[in-house]
Structure formats: structure tokens, C-alpha cells
Amino acid sequence: MATISPGDSAVSGVPVAPPTRSVQRLPSMADVAALAGVSSQTVSRVVNGRSNVDADTRDRVLAAMDEIGYRPNSAARALKSGKFSTIGVIMFTLSSFGNMRTLDAVAMAAAEAGYSITLIPVALPTQGAVAGAVNRLAEQAVDGIVIIMEAHMLDRIDVTVPTGLPVVIVDSDAGARYTVVDTDQTEGARLATQHLLDLGHKTVWHIAGPESSFSAGRRTASWRNTLKAAGAPVPPVLEGDWNAASGYVHGVALAANPEVTAVFASNDQMALGVMRALHEAGRSVPAEVSVVGFDDMREADAFWPPLTTVHQDFGQVGRLCIEKLLRQIDSPSASVPGTTIVPTHLVLRASTAPPPPPGLA
Fold first, then answer.
1. Are 321 and 180 spatial neighbours (Cβ–Cβ below 8 Å)?
2. Where in the chain is the domain with CATH 3.40.50.2300?
3. Which of 37, 101, 226, 227 is the least crowded, having the fewest Cβ atoms under 10 Å away?
4. Is 130 exposed, middle or buried (0-12, 13-18, 19+ CB in 10 A)?
5. Rounded-to-integer distance, Cα 204 and Cα 228, Å
6. Alpha carbon separation from 319 to 92, 151, 326 (Å, rounded)
7. Is the omega angle on the peptide bond into residue 305 within 30 degrees of 0, that is, cis?
8. How many CA atoms lie within 13 A of 213 on its CB side?
């Protein structure tokens, strides 16, 4: 007689079946119903959040689910209801402060509404890249899409969104075709520039964001228009990349120019770089040069001196995006193209003052 050791599959040509493994069956809705003493239909009502179940029965069903470790099959329920409780987000860049704050606000608002987020970053702002991201999200069964496209993009190319898939866009000129939520870039830049002019500065120098940026373009145009309306000279635009390093590079050149008494940077990080350059050059802020930023990041009041800046309400942007998207999800006919503008306002701190007397700059 042959001796069969563990792991042998055959001896002397005689096949041996592998040892069987017992598979533990997951608790089912029927198990919950039996333990709670209710019907499976009642358990289904509780799982789906229906209101036609009395409180005592609901508590008994929930207790039974907890006792046996039952977890509802959300995928199956989604296929049945046609809703997946997931929102897709497409973003061009994760590196800018504004985009990250907007993403954070959208994610928080979605979570409060009971939705999860699926994020797809887009490396390059091209039609193919965005269309590919939209298609990937559609395949992953999302209920709607928020597109955070800082670049001048959706206003000039045709991105096809699958029919029936709700979409909301942040910061774009695409309001004629889509639902858009934007902060008031134009008014914010006007307030910043006009504040410096009202202090008595003859003109205001501007460090802009990247040329490809939608919001940077709006701020630059408003800065220029405000100077022209006041009859003030319009200095050449200095283009940065949103980072403090680019603000510092331009700040070095500005600090060497005694005619410069006021600078409006298109975001707080570049303003920080400008102030460092001014400090290193021995030009006092704000006694000799006033500086204004844009965004009102949490650290703005910790700059030295604390930064006068334009406040953007990213939380409101996120809430409006989700609110408008859920309205489309619940009622497809509610998808009405147009742009909703979230107001901006100027926060006055210690980085701005009247210009120094002639000859003391």
C-alpha cells in the first residue's frame, strides 16, 4: 500500500484530489431577515434608506445586520437604482493652491451629500486627454463629473461629454454649453489694483500667473483695464508660474527699479517671493513698496508684514459645484448652461500703505 504524504497529487499513477477547502458563506439579506424576524423586503427597505419602516423595526434590522456582519452590496444596488453615489473629478494640475483648495471643497461637499470622489488628473490640457478622462469616468459608472480646468481649454475646444452624464465646470468660459461655477476674478483684481491707486501710487506693477491659465488671464485683463480707466501708466506684464520662486525672480528686478512702489501679484505665493526679494534689497514693505496678493491662503496673515490680498471662497465654490451637479443627477432637465459667480473681497492687512514722498523711494 502506498503512503501518501501531504501535498502529493498522485502516487503510482493514481490521481489524488486536492484537499477541499471550506468556503465561508457571507451573510445574506435572508439571514438578516430571519434573525430580525422580518421579511427580506423589509430588510431591503432599511438598506436603501426608505422611510416606510417604523423606527423599532429599523433598529431591529440594523442590530441584526451588525450582529452577523452583513454588508449591503452597494454595486448591486447601484445597478438596480442607476445611481452609484460617486462623482468623478477631472483636474489639469494638482500643484496650484487654488486647484487643491477647490478639490478639497468639492470632496468635502460631496462627502456631506453621501458621495465619494474618483479623481483623474490630466497631464496635458488637450482635447484627447480630457475626452479620455471623461470616457474613463463614464466606464467607472459615476453619477456626474466636476471638471476643474484652470487652463484656457473648454472655451476653445469641443470636449464631448456622454449624453445624460451631468457635468459642472470650475473656472471656464464654457458657460454657453455647460454649468459653470467661477469666482469673481475680474472684481477681485479690480479691487486689488484700485486699492493701490487709491493709496496714491502712480501705477501698479503686476506679476501674472501662466499665460495658459484662465483665472490668471482674467486677473491680468482686469488689472490692465483698471489702470487704463484711471489714466495710469500700464507697465509690462511679468509672467510667473504661481510659485514663490517665480515671484522672487521678478521681485529682484522690481526691487532694483526705484520707480516701483506698488505690486499686485496674481497669487499669494508669488507675493511672498516678491516680499522676500524686496526685504533682501533693503526696500521696506510697505513703507517703500506695497504688495497685494490673491487667494487669501491661510498663511497670508503670517507673512511679514501680513499680506493684503483678495479672498476667494473656495468652500462656496465646492458647495455650489456639488449642489448644481446633484440637481442635474436628480432631475436631468435641470441641466441649464450658464455661469454662477462667487464674490471675492479684499482683505486689508499691513503690506500696503501710501507711496513714500518723491525722492525717498
1. no
2. 84-181+314-336, 185-313
3. 37
4. buried
5. 11
6. 20, 22, 11
7. yes
8. 21
Domain 27-72, second-level architecture: Orthogonal Bundle (1.10)
* Distance between CA atoms of residues 320 and 182, nearest Å: 10
CA distances from 360 to 256, 279, 281 (A): 14, 16, 15
CA dihedral 219, 224, 226, 232 (to 10 degrees): 150
Q: Answer for the pair 322, 106: CB distance below 8 angstroms, yes or no.
A: yes
Q: What is the pLDDT of residues 268-326, one digit of tens each?
A: 999 999 999 999 999 999 999 999 999 999 999 999 999 999 999 999 999 999 999 99
All three cell numbers of 78? 447601484
User: In the chain, where does the domain assigned CATH 1.10.260.40 lie?
Assistant: 27-72
Q: What is the CATH number of domain 84-181+314-336?
A: 3.40.50.2300
- Give the distance, in angstroms, between the CA of residue 156 and the centroid of all CA atoms in the same chain: 22
Taking the C-alpha atoms of residue 86 and residue 174, their distance in angstroms, rounded to an integer, is 24
- Residue-wise pLDDT tens digits, 39-94: 988 887 777 666 678 888 988 988 888 888 776 655 455 545 556 789 999 988 77
Q: Measure the CA–CA gap between 204 and 227, rounded to whole angstroms.
A: 8
* 198 grid coordinates: 487709491
| Cα–Cα distances in angstroms (integers) from residue 100 to residues 63, 96, 106, 339, in the given order | 40, 6, 10, 21
Q: What are phi and psi of 153, to 5 degrees?
A: -145, -60
Give residues with Cβ within 8 angstroms of 289, minimum separation 6.
254, 255, 260, 261, 262, 263, 278, 283, 361
Residue reference for cell 484652470? 150
User: Which amino acid, residue 186?
Assistant: T
| Angle (CA) 183 184 190, round 5° | 145
* DSSP 3-state of 212: coil
